[in-house]
Structures are given as C-alpha cells and as structure tokens.
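It is worth pausing here to work through a concrete case rather than discussing structure prediction in the abstract. The textbook approach is simple: state the sequence, then state the predicted structure, then interpret. We follow exactly that order.
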Amino acid sequence: MIKDLLDSAADRMDAALDNLSSDLMSIRTGRASPALIEKLQVEYYGSNLPLIQLANISVPEARQLLIKPFDASSLKAIERAIQASELGLTPNNDGKQIRLNLPPLTEERRRDLVKLVNGRLEECKVALRNIRRDILKDMRDYEKEKLISEDELEAGEEKLQKIIEQKTEEVDQIGYRKEKEIMEV
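Step two, the predicted structure:
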C-alpha cells in the first residue's frame, strides 16, 4: 500500500521534471534550436496549433531558423504568431518560407533569461512539494483508518522524503546545466 503511494509519487514527480525539461528547451540560448519555437501557438483556420504541426523547422546556420510551412496559406498566420510572441524576433518572409535571425544575446538579456529559468525551477519545486503533501496526507489517512501501522507510516514518510530530496537535486542539476548554457558566450 505504501509502496503504491511511493511509486505514484515518483511517477508524478518524474512527470513534473519532464515538463520542466521541455519547458526549458523553449528558453533561448546562444544557439538556434527548433525547440525555441516548436510549441509556439499559431491560429490556423480558427484553432490554435503548435507551429511544429504546421511547418518544418530547420537550422541552416548557427543563429538562424528556417520555417517551411506545409501549407503556403499558413505563412501569414505563422508570421503573426512569431511577432506576437515574447521571443522578440523579426520574421523575414520571402513568400515561401520564413527566416528568423537570432541576434547575439547581451549580458543583460542572459541575466534575464537566467531569472526566468530560476522562476521555472521554483515552480517545479513547488509542484514536487505539493505532490509530497498529497502523498503524506494519503499515508496519514491510511494510518487513521488502521490500514497501516504507525511504524509503516514513519518508514513511508522517510522514503518519501528521500524521493523528494533526490528529485529536488535533479531539478537543481537541470537548472545548473541550463544556466551554464545561457551564460556561455
């Protein structure tokens, strides 16, 4: 019973870490990466779709992204979505494809991106703590209902604490790698 709760906690925490990793991929570093714009929402025929479903995204040069829409009629919608986004990039539309030139990051912009990363890391840690709180509540409910003993509860709490410490360490490592990537000139 406790093992099921601990497995559930680990799975939910892994999902939070996966979400963090994919979220951080959209934060720009010094190099061009399709992940920067893949999830950008584009309004296309009345519905919002991620850019990756509407176009092929490639990296022809280190600081350039090339967007080739599958349907030429979506070109204007993609261009509008890029301009409306918080990326701060100007799309160059030649009628068939869009080129995005990524300017070099300034020191100030790098620091802002690190702050953004740290905010996302903290959100993930809060999510981990919320999962721990929910699982602890379930364990205590089991103990109140006499489904588990007090000793089993205590052992479960210790195991849960070890899991959260490990996952928090993983969050810190992910953040450290991303910060290093951003600050690299």
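Step three, interpretation. Strands lie at 41-44, 47-50, 55-61, 64-69, 91-93, 98-101. The two ends are 51 Å apart (CA to CA).
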